[in-house]
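Hi U.,

Before I forget, here's the chain from the pilot set. I'm dumping it here mostly so it's searchable later in email.
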Amino acid sequence: MHPLLKTIQEPHQLRALPESALRQLADELRDFTIETVSKTGGHLGASLGVVELTIALHYIFDTPEDRLIWDVGHQSYPHKILTGRRDRMATLRQRHGLSGFTNRAESLYDPFGAGHSSTSISAALGMAMASRHQGIKRHAIAVIGDGAMTAGMVFEALNNAGEHQKQANLIVILNDNEMSISANVGAFSAYLSRIMSGRMYTRLKGGTGRMLGRIAPPLLDAARKAEEHVKGMLTPGTLFEELGFDYFGPIDGHDFNQLLPTLRNVRQLPGPILVHVITKKGKGFVPAENNPCTYHGVNPFDRRQGVMPARDVTPSYTQIFSKTLVDLARSNSKIMAITAAMPEGTGLQEFSECFPDRFFDVGIAEQHAVTFAAGLACEGFVPVVAIYSTFLQRAYDQVIHDVVLQKLPVVFALDRAGLVGADGATHAGVFDLSFLRAIPDLVIMAPADENELRHMLATAIALGKPVALRYPRGAALNLPPEPIKLLPVGVGRILQEGSDITLIAVGQPVHVALQAARRLEEAGFAVGVFDARFVKPLDATLLRRAAASRVVVTLEENTTMGGFGAAVLEFLAAEGLLDAGLKVRNWGLPDRFIPHGTQAELRAELELDADGLVQRIQSLLSH
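Structure:
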């Protein structure tokens, strides 16, 4: 199996092959990628779409001396295989194994790490200008998808790069497959879709000079302006050329006869340069070609059948959120739903089908999503911005200035809060409690189970002020549904009381605390469990009651630096309750980035599962 691929440990061995061998290598590389991901899970469709492009880039450029940067990095599996990591691909996204994204600590061939989109051009421009400053002749190549091009940061980078015409050895590869995770949206995506043949573009690009080269300069200048006008109507390159880039393409990203000469030619030219490459997401694996959304990120699957394993029938928190929002929207026409290119991931697909006029996918543009929601709120609507916790970090300024400072009733539904598993540190939603808690007048709540999620979503929509509602990735507890009710703001729940120790938990750890408490009671300890529900405002009565026990432990799936536990400790100190010798411990995530692994593995290592809590509490009470 894969006889040619087995001879390639590093790109210099790839560059020693004749061009005639590259087609076979591409077939073997694609097959190996499918075989690997069918066992480990991961981002399949995007990686299959760039097999030929990956080979061509390493074949033409002198990596790692030339810096090759993959935007997001979820399409980098073929790159990993060709850069010394083939034998470790079975550990992809596994605990202590290879990252699912590019990672500077993993390889010299990963000059820039990423897990979020639209950073590659900025980073590559920085590297290109650094090389120029050092007097080193090397290229910086950014590979970015058309979906990622919708982010404002990309246009900031393009605008800045255009100032360095003929100075920056920057090459941008626009990988145009008309998909990011879901189908691309927006005017820019539509613009790229208006693609003419490469032959017509070449004819237009070079025709004016050949026809009018000997005519007076004023007439030649006028003719070139007319040419640009025609090109602007017929080709996708004018925008980039107006920004200062030399544009080449579009070319077939699966055809070495187009890829190799184009890359070889642009390597000789001064930058900045943009090469427009057309690819097909999921190329070479029919199920992925036919269902690019489904096969964007996959669990292990039966490769021969091309069938995904049956999913857990227990509804996820995302599904609970989705159904509840749709139910609430049926009786409240003011509810609007917004996503930043993640309708499936955030559960808003059903809402978009039920209420297409009240659903907005703004593309990979989190900052715009938040301020767009603020504009809707100004006009009397109740926008619900469904967004992964980790992606809200990109819009922190907008949350403060455009929403909360103006007291606008925007609901932030923060999916994937806490540990997320195999996607690792870039996707873990473990800072939101800390960075949101610092904002005045923002209500922050976290449900312990699916019924609490229903109640909290209804409460947030009815409240008429800014609210952040965070909930975890994964299956809910499968509890019988309760009728939806509005919760009193800033009021928690006493689930059980105990004189030895009180566990005050928020969110998913509440039920882990209950499991640990039952086991500790069997050992003779009196353990209280309180569900705080609200991180802001805190339930003062609940906290004073907890302080009646000998020991108070706070539990959260967020960094303890400035999180829920810190808020409780601040309150107890201000109340003078620490002066009586009350012992307080804040248990959550340590002050470091948490690597990839399953949620269960990570919680066990961090002693945030029931077994870990029992051991820690027994040790705490014995001293």
